[in-house]
Design goal:
1 helix; mainly beta; about 5% helix; Immunoglobulin-like; 10-stranded mixed β-sheet
Length: about 240
């Protein structure tokens, strides 16, 4: 089975398609926390829609060498240490003040896919205290998609998202929403990078955004002719 998988990956690389990276990196953590209490965080790689979380040994290239950053309210980002599990990395932090905390990952894979450079990004927001509104300008990742508030959302209530690239709203771009029931749908951002959806089931939803550009350069001594960026975030929905 592993040989067949390797053959299929090679075939996809040779055709120059970006469909290989339906796989994504995403962060899971509760949308709210409390001062003085540990906030648990997990980072997965795989395909959320099909409940596929890859074993660490199967992660693409050197993606598992990513750095996890924490940006506390009004402070510079700091690196969090991570602990390997079977199919995830875990980390934790203790909030010291009220406000919205940001957890971010942005990792360019060491190896090219054919002649394409791949960057995996993810962001998660945690609200401590009454403030829950996310300031997208404070997210350090080049590309991101995230809900407007850090909280637990309700079924059948609209969720507002925003997509950003290079600090600017990303207009007319598809954002994929993956539900815990295996349902997925693509939504198109408006002129201000906004998009909305209504969750129909409780559980965790993963949001995914990608950007593909024809561009040339060198990366780790390899010449690339295109660059792909994938960004995710996730949120919890209750009944």
């Amino acid at each position: 089975m592993k040989n067949l998988r390797s053959f299929l990956l090679l075939l996809l690389f040779s055709t120059g398609t970006v469909q290989l990276f339906a796989h994504a990196l995403w962060i899971e953590t509760p949308g709210t926390g409390k001062k003085g209490q540990p906030q648990e965080v997990k980072i997965f790689y795989g395909e959320y829609a099909s409940n596929e979380r890859e074993q660490l040994s199967e992660w693409y290239s050197d993606v598992k060498e990513f750095t996890l950053w924490l940006t506390a309210p009004g402070k510079e980002k700091v690196q969090l240490s991570k602990t390997p599990g079977a199919d995830f990395y875990s980390a934790s932090f203790i909030p010291e003040q009220d406000g919205v905390y940001l957890l971010t990952v942005s990792h360019v894979a060491k190896d090219l896919g054919g002649t394409t450079k791949y960057e995996f990004s993810s962001v998660a927001a945690v609200a401590v205290g009454k403030t829950s509104v996310v300031d997208h300008r404070s997210i350090p990742n080049t590309i991101n998609v995230l809900a407007g508030e850090a909280r637990t959302y309700k079924m059948n209530a609209t969720v507002q998202l925003k997509a950003v690239l290079n600090g600017q709203p990303l207009a007319n771009k598809p954002v994929s929403v993956f539900s815990p029931e295996g349902w997925s749908k693509e939504f198109i951002t408006d002129a201000n990078g906004h998009v909305a959806f209504t969750p129909l089931w409780p559980g965790r939803y993963v949001l995914e955004l990608s950007n593909f550009e024809k561009t040339t350069g060198t990366h780790n001594g390899q010449t690339y002719t295109a660059a792909w960026q994938g960004a995710t975030s996730s949120l919890e929905v209750s009944k």
